[in-house]
Amino acid sequence: MKEQYFQQFSKRLIEAMKNIDSHYFQLSFAGSNKLKYRERVYCYELYHQLRLLLGDDFPYKLNGELDKKSHSIILGEKKPDFVIHVPGEMEQNLVVMEVKTLSTIQADINSLIEDIKKLKRFISEAKYYRAIMLIYGSVNGDLPQNIRQEIEKVHDEKIITLWHDSLNKKPKIIGGGKYID
Question: Is 26 helix (H, G, I), strand (E, B) or coil?
Fold first, then answer.
């Protein structure tokens, strides 16, 4: 049953990503013609789009930036970008998701490595069915080789890596893709 709900969620996630408007994909700054990727801006719009598409009938709840530092089972200070779960029921944890801009990862590859470790802990400690590492943004239309290599090192079938490289397009599945129809 979880697989069926995961497939429903992943289809809506991909649709939500395609629906993100340019203002939320890259933010312009006053006095500059440069556009910048801003994780929080993107995440808030992704949350909004997901809520619209999931509706109230989806049996799992979407929460963003849910602080787990006082949790009795999930130890440490962990705050995933998104969780899709039934609050209060550890056996009903469907998806945990981390989001990073490509520019953030390029500046600090360890941020990607740490997020992947966090996702692995949520799968093992909190029994999440699947985890998604979502990278968004692009530099010259490609994903740098060192980032691809880190993703290839994951070796966890439950972690799916998506790359949302351009506006209004379907993200590319670059790791764990056999779990998304």
Answer: coil
| C-beta separation of 96 from 74 below 8 A | no
CA 79 to chain centre: 13
Q: What is the enclosing helix (H) or strand (E) of 152?
A: helix 145-152
Q: Which domains does the chain have, with CATH numbers?
A: 2-179 (3.40.91)
Name the 3-class secondary structure at 9: helix
Which among 89, 11, 3, 81 is positioned nearest to 47, based on CA atoms? 81
d(CA 20, CA 44): 10
Q: What percent of the chain has pLDDT over 70?
A: 91
Closest residue by Cα to residue 65 from 46, 44, 79, 50: 79
Return the pLDDT at 65: 82
> Regarding predicted confidence, which is higher, 90 or 84?
84
C-beta separation of 39 from 104 below 8 A: yes
Comparing 10-24, 43-57, 66-80, 107-121, which segment has the lowest mean pLDDT? 66-80
Q: What predicted TM-score, i.e. pTM, was given to this entire model?
A: 0.91
